[in-house]
Each structure stands twice: as structure tokens, then as C-alpha cells.
Amino acid sequence: MAVSEIGSANKIQMDYMKLLVTQMQNQNPLEPMNNDQMTSQLTQISQLEQMESQTASFAKVMNRKARSLGMRHSNFLNPHGLTASGQYSTARDMAICARAVYSSATLRGIISTKAYTFRFSNGRTKLLENTNRVLKKLPYCNGMKTGTTRASGRCLISSGTLNGRTAIVVVLGTKTATVWTDSEKLLRWALERPASR
């Protein structure tokens, strides 16, 4: 993975562990850490190691599920999809995954949400808006997932239902904002043209 790639959880974890070790090494040997400092740093390291173990376990389960769905050209290494060396997928595999997600009424409700007002425990609220521009533009678009990294470019999985027909469109690797118009055109083509008999 390139050092310039921002957002990789594994890189952040490793950087944090290096920082903790450096702090421990730079501690004045004549003034050793007190028990609270040592316990705090060891707890943080333990939590990071546990997170890494959970990520590997999740990836194993995710890959097993992907294979069972017929996704033959994907390998997942983390749950968030950020760049990781050896993690990959194809548009076809993402469409297979999207079809499985779409079969859940609960998930369909989540991915079709255009905005949500989040209420903090202190009563303050914050409006969270879906970043899928196609969802906001086409009345029959009902989801699905946006994503962008430097390595993958702009990616969008869109779904829509019109006149009893549903389509899922996958656009991967776009380096410009055409991801929105490309996805819209593909959904229009799939759903607005007369159905084949």
C-alpha cells in the first residue's frame, strides 16, 4: 500500500502502535512510567491487536459468504472497503452482492434513506444526508452505495424500481464526477426502455 493512501485502518493502527512504542522508548529511564501510564498504553495496544484480529475474522466470514453467493473474483481484507493490498472485486461481483443486499427489506429501507436527523443524547440534532446524487435525482432510484478511494476512484452501486422491474447498476473506477451521470444513464436505459417480451 502506498504511504500516500489516506484512511487505511491497518496503517492507522500500525502508526498508532509505533507512536506508543516510541513514547515508551523515549520515556526518561530515570523516571519510569507509573502504573497508570503503563496500563493505559498496554490497554491501547491490546485493543488495537484485538481490532486487527476481529478484522481478519470478519474478512474470513465475508469471503466465505461472497463465495456462497457466487462472487468468484473478490477478496476482502477489511469490513470498511478502504484500500488494502490484496483486496479486490469486480463490477459483476459487486452486482451479485448488491442483489443479496436488495433482497433484505430492512437493508432496502436503509439504503433508500435520503436524509436522517440524528439526535444526540444531549438533545442536539444533526441532519445526515445520503451522498448518492442519483437517489436524489431519479424518483425511482432506491439506493444503494457510494464509495471513493484514491486507488479505486469513484464507485457507485445504484438500484431502482419502475413499472414492476428492478435494476442494479455498478460503476467502478471513475476518476471524475461522471459516476453520477453514468449511473443515471444506465438506470434510465435499464428501466425506461420497453421491457423485452
Could you give me the name of the CATH homologous superfamily of the largest domain? Answer: DD-peptidase/beta-lactamase superfamily
Q: What is the H/E order?
A: HHHHEEHEEEH
**Percent helix among the residues?**
40-55%
Largest sheet: 3 strands, antiparallel
Q: Return the CATH architecture of the largest domain.
A: 3-Layer(aba) Sandwich
Distance between the first and last residues' Cα: 49 Å
Record field, number of beta strands: 5
Count up the domains.
2
Tell the overall outline.
globular
Quickly count the helices. 6
> Regarding CATH, which class of the largest domain?
Alpha Beta
**Rg:** 22 Å
The low-confidence runs, each spanning 5 or more residues with pLDDT under 50, are 1-9, 27-31
CATH topology of the largest domain: Beta-lactamase
Q: Give the strand order, joined by hyphens, for the main sheet.
A: 3-4-5
As a percent range, the share of strand residues is 15-25%
**Overall pLDDT confidence:** 81
Structural class: alpha+beta
SSE map:
Elements: H1 9-26, H2 35-69, H3 91-102, H4 105-111, E1 115-119, E2 125-129, H5 133-137, E3 141-149, E4 153-162, E5 165-174, H6 178-192
Antiparallel strand pairs: 1-2, 3-4, 4-5
Helix pairs in contact: 1-2
Give short descriptive properties of this protein.
5 strands; alpha+beta; 6 helices; 47% helix; three-stranded antiparallel β-sheet; 197 residues; single chain; Beta-lactamase; globular
